Amino acid sequence: MSTKTIKQRIAVVAVSALTAGFLSVVATPASNAAVTNGSENSAVGTAGPSAAVKVLNIGTVNSVTGTSTGTGASATSVGLVNVSDIAGTRISGTTQTAVLLSTGALALYTLTDGDEGDNPYIAALTVENGTFTGGNATDAINSSRTTVVFSDAGSAESVLAVPNAGATTMTVRMYTGQMTAYNSTASTAVATASAIPTKGALEGQISVTIASASSAGAIAASKSGVYYVSSWSSSNTATSDTAGLGSANAVSKQYGAISIRDAFSTAVAAGGLLQVSATNGALVALTDAVGSASTAFSITEANGAGFAVSNPTVNPLSTTVTVTYNGTVIGTKTFAFWGEVATVTLSAPKVGKNNTTSGNRATLALADSAGNPIYVEYATVDSTFTPQSGIITSAASDDTVTFVADTAEIDSSGNVTAGKVDFACSSTATKQNIQVQYVNNSGKVITSNLLPVSCAGAAVSYTLSYDKATYAPGEIATATIQFKDKKGNPSTDNETTTSDTGTLVALSISNSGMKGTSALVAPAAGDDTTDGKVSYKFVVDVTEGTYTNSVTAATADTNAGTALVTATKAATATITVKAAGTTVTNADVLKSIVSLIASINKQIQALQKLILRR
To answer: What's the pLDDT band for 564 if we cut at 50, 70, 90?
Structure first.
């Protein structure tokens, strides 16, 4: 490759170089925590900051002649691809990184302050897998050209670091200290710093990755990719997917970000053909807009470009988006769009409370024509949920159904993730049907199923029962408390006006015959009831016997202080704990003897008949 070609490639790569991909992690001293004047390197291709004491900077402008020139901030490197640090910034501390071509030279500069009088600063630079050459104001350099010392110059000092042949990495460090840290006189201090540079404090370190000309600037699939993002940008920095994206409703746009980098994680320069294509008729655009076609392209964008994906219909759609750059596949992503609402299903009604319009809850589920669940767009223009104008009901007064959404049921985007509806109840217990409609953005109206619901009064009595009469030791027993209203119907599940939970404020259950001191999940204030009942599970003890347990319920609800139950006597239920096959009673023994005697008698009778025939 000619010198001119190399310079052209360096120039193209340097223009858009970002973060290096191969980093060496080192301990960061306290001095690296504070950012002082000149402590941040510039981007490749941009002039560096002024030289500063105890700061090691990189000459970030590449030479156009192939030979380094200048000193301090004007010092030029040769073949510099990228400058960064392990945090992705360019702080000039002990975590600096750089990418350099194997044929290149890294320009380094600092400042030693002569204003300290008789105790000036000394800077000792070391290099591993490379040597120092050129530069200015050097006070000493060792015979192997791996250590250079600057002292008391009062102006910027610079030197070049050149990688050894075949090296894949090179490390430069700078140690600084005042003269007395090395020796008592200037001449001996410089000699000491050259021989033992680590006597000073480590103030700067650069971990350099050595790149071949063929890999710098060439697309590396392992370092590139396509990612989901939440919004469009022309300069994305995404390197991973944003959680929760990849699916949306039919009328929404979704977004992706493109990362095109070389083997050193350096951004590949724009100028090639960037193309984004979608399958199944989806529309794409390299702007924040609804595209006009399934393919979009650009010759001015590359790394960091964003794109938008849209569904041109109201039907469910799945599309695969493929991104290529100069024919090389950068990555693919699948975007799913659910369609408009095709079914509305009401289910799981609570027992409503008489003479109440709120808190009598049923569950609402929406789905598209493919059965994909849909979240309701709450308080947005996308779709509108409305009750049917003529609710089918068994009582004229029960003609209201309203859409509700508790705060906990709305996600950060305003989508209802668990839809609910409230229905009204008259002053007396009744059974009725409710029905709702959903109006799509297209105007298409979808009517729900008829859902039977019931209403009842507050609890005035309760009973206790178990799911079995007899348990083996170690089994799980379920205790159920059934509340009933004054008419003997299952009592309402709506004891508050703000949620669909009950208000069991003082429920207690004895646990005789059970292992431990309480239920697996202990009763608590606000426990929910369904069809007027609530259940708790216990682990059965190993001790056999018959046990009677009792339950005492709350005497008032927390909503209005009115009576929840009027019964003052605890409800009881009995269980038996018995190990299978371990206990034989006298009755069991007598039964077995009688059965055996009967069997013997039958055999004797059969033998007698056989003898008489002969």
So the answer is: low
What sign for the dihedral angle of Cα 197, 200, 202, 206? negative
Model pLDDT for residues 459-492, shown as the tens digit of each residue:
878 899 999 999 999 999 999 999 888 888 888 8
Spatial distance between the Cα atoms of 131 and 409, rounded to a whole number of angstroms? 65
* 291-333 residue pLDDT tens: 999 999 999 998 899 999 999 998 999 999 999 999 999 999 9
Q: Is 539 left (phi over 0), alpha (psi -120 to 50) or beta?
A: beta
Distance of CA 128 to the CA centre of its chain: 41
* Whether pTM exceeds 0.70: no
14: enclosing H helix or E strand: helix 3-15
**Regarding predicted confidence, which is higher, 313 or 379?**
313
Tokens of 296: 């979009």
Task: Copy the structure tokens of residue 438.
Answer: 């959903």
Q: Can you give the residue ranges of every domain in the chain?
A: 3-211, 221-338, 343-456, 461-577, 586-614
221-338 and 461-577 share one CATH topology?
yes
Q: What is the CATH number of domain 343-456?
A: 2.60.40.10
Q: What is the Cα–Cα distance from 285 to 306, expressed in whole angstroms?
A: 9
The CA distance from 348 to 593, in Å, is 56
Which CATH fold topology does 461-577 show?
Immunoglobulin-like (2.60.40)
Distances (CA, A) of 204 to 27, 146, 341, 557, 581: 11, 16, 62, 70, 80
Write the CATH number of the domain with boundaries 221-338. 2.60.40.10
Strands (E), 114-155: 121-128, 130-136, 140-141, 147-151
β-strands 254-259, 306-310 pairing: antiparallel
